[in-house]
Amino acid sequence: MAILLRAKYFLSSRLNSLTRFQRCNHTLGERGLQAELYSEMAPAPNNALHPIDTSKWKKIQASKVGIIVSIISFPSWIVLNTLHKVGFEAYLVGGCVRDLLLKRIPKDFDVITTANLRQIKMIFHRAEIIGRRFPICRVYIKGSIIEVSSFETVAKWDEDKEKALSSLIPNGCDEKDLIRWRNSMNRDFTINGLFFDPFTFNIFDYNNGMSDLKSLKLRTLIPARVISRGLCNFSYAARILRGLRIAARLGLSFSKDTESVMHDLSASIEGLDKFRLMLELNYMLYYGASYSSICLLRRFNLLNILLPIQAAYINQQRSAKNSMMLMKLFFTLDKLVSCNHPANSSLWVGLLMFHLALVNNPQDALVVWTFASVLYHGKWKEGVEFAREHTKVEIEYVPEISGFSESKSNDDLAKDVAQFASLVQYSV
Predict the structure, then answer these.
(1) Hey, what long-range contacts does 419-423 have (CB within 8 A, 24 or more apart)?
(2) Each residue of 260-314: pLDDT tens digit?
(3) Which residues, other chains included, contact 222 with Cβ-Cβ below 8 Å and sequence gap of 6+?
């Protein structure tokens, strides 16, 4: 009994040490909002300027495309209504409109308004302006954070282009349409350039985003040929990763030219700082699309940059035509999390550590089941009982599982599980 108690304590201490990864979540949350916005918004290159074709501009009744208003979060409604009541235009914009059209729950709701940032800050009691490159106002409402950007910000950010645009504006162009169109031209993909006015129930589309969304197609808003020729004055490295995770989460395909330029520029992500890479990887793996994200990263030769050890494992397993436990783990993870119930970053980091420990030190199936069962039940006795009752080997995982010993004593099992817990920790 003494050895069981010591093993239980040792196992608990080892597993508790894994939670130190949780401290990165706060950093990802605070800095992530800004990094996310930067990848979606950036000034369009002057080379892409051409006479404005207003025939592509569309106003669609949201009721005709089935937007479910009840999905919009209550804090978002408070922000929208407050701005509207004091005389400003206010819209939902970007990915949340895209997700609403796809009948999905958005992971967040972004608001854009004709008010400037100082006015926004004055309107709301708890609000702060953050960011230097592309400042926004972060509004705190009922425990939620709503990002509010201003149409004015983009216009001031790229004043030279605004002057060039003025000569291209056709006579009689509606001013509100022009403001929205200008902003849409600074976004990343056509499906992220949509505006939803919840007060008139209209959707505004200036770049055929609705058509691409209907076709489940991801297309860069700036022509891919412009990007591939190096004519853009900003980096598209982060947008490549953003495009991959959007496609993975929503099951989108890529337009032919977009896929081509993403392949051509994929190596450029090595120039991103480590925080940004971690941020993007976190977005990919904890919102319920880790399996498809891993597949897309491999397809675009990016997995060997972001997760080189796991990339080598997958290549080896495919060559040997072995079952891949790692992909099964991610597939199972995706069933447990979603945009409205995301995973903690320590979960997928711990999953990678767990798998790496198994690859380097194959274990008996009963040891692995007991380790996982004790984690789930939180108690040694219940965990062992559950593992002994349910352990089975239906699929041969090589090299992770070394065999199955049904007759292993409790003392031996305690020692082996405690040792494996230490191996998981040391896999960092």
Answers:
(1) 420/357, 420/361, 420/363, 420/367, 420/368, 420/371, 421/10, 421/11, 421/14, 421/15, 421/371, 422/10, 422/14, 423/357, 423/360, 423/361
(2) 888 888 888 888 888 888 888 999 998 899 999 999 999 999 999 999 999 999 9
(3) 44, 45, 48, 232
Give alpha helix (H) positions in 215-270.
224-228, 237-250, 256-265
| Angle ∠(267,47,169) on CA atoms, nearest 5 | 135
pLDDT tens-digit map of 374-384: 998 989 999 99
CA–CA separation, 144 and 136 (whole Å): 16
Residue 182 near residue 150 (C-beta atoms within 8 A): no
User: Could you write out the DSSP letters of every residue in 85-97?
Assistant: HTT--EEEETHHH
Residue 90 token pair: 């206010």
What is the SS3 assignment for 208? coil
- What DSSP line would sit under 221-234, residue for residue? SS-HHHHHTT--SS
| Residues near 412 by beta carbon (within 8 Å), at least 6 away in sequence | none
For the stretch 12-47, what's the b/e string if a residue is b when 16 or more beta carbons lie within 10 angstroms of its beta carbon? bebbeebeebeebeeebeeebbbbbbbbbbbbbbee
Axis-axis angle for helices 308-320, 325-336 (nearest 10): 120
Q: Report whether 40 contacts 187 (CB < 8 A).
A: yes
Mapped onto helix, strand or coil, the DSSP state of residue 196 is strand
- Note the helical H segments in 232-364: 237-250, 256-265, 274-285, 290-299, 303-306, 308-320, 325-336, 345-360
How many other β-carbons are positioned within 10 Å of the β-carbon of residue 102? 15
Side-by-side strand order, sheet with 144-150: 58-61, 202-205, 195-197, 90-93, 110-113, 144-150, 136-141, 127-130
Q: Which two tokens stand for residue 346?
A: 């320590």
CB 386 within 8 A of CB 373: yes
| Number of Cα atoms under 13 Å in the Cβ half of residue 30 | 7
Report the C-alpha gap between 221 and 258 in whole angstroms: 10
Residues 6+ positions from 12 with CB-CB distance below 8 Å? none
pTM to 2 decimal places? 0.83
Cα–Cα distance between 193 and 34 in angstroms, integer?
18
What's 415's DSSP letter?
Answer: H
